[in-house]
Amino acid sequence: MKVLLDANALMVPGQFGVDVFEELERLGFREFLVARPVLIEIEALAELAGSRRDRTAARIGLLLAERCEIFEASGRADEALIAIAEKTGAAVFTNDRELKKKLSTRGVTVIHLRQRRRLEIANRKEF
């Protein structure tokens, strides 16, 4: 199964020490995708994020993105994730509450960080 990773998903290992690839594989996901606008967003965070911790987490995220297939897209990251997920049938790993709602209403599977230590497939009622 395929999963798209949002910028905040790529930052989880640097922020919480969770091995997102191991966790995604535990949930049955084997193909990891990153949309080009997400890479642009995380590159900006690596340079401009307010705290040193966030910049470091973003830099770690950039390294992790190298393990993913880059999906070319344009526009804003959220819109690209929605469009790609609908087109490919991929799930989306994000912790962004608003994006989770948008994805859920479109029938897209959403994965999120639970209790800062494991990933789970979100239940629509959680949003």
TrEMBL record:
The keyword DNA-binding applies. Residues 1-101 form the PIN domain. It holds the Pfam family PIN_9. InterPro entries: PIN-like_dom_sf, PIN_9, PIN_dom. Keywords: DNA-binding. GO terms for molecular function: DNA binding. This is DNA-binding protein. It comes from Candidatus Methanocrinis natronophilus. The lineage of its organism: Archaea, Methanobacteriati, Methanobacteriota, Stenosarchaea group, Methanomicrobia.
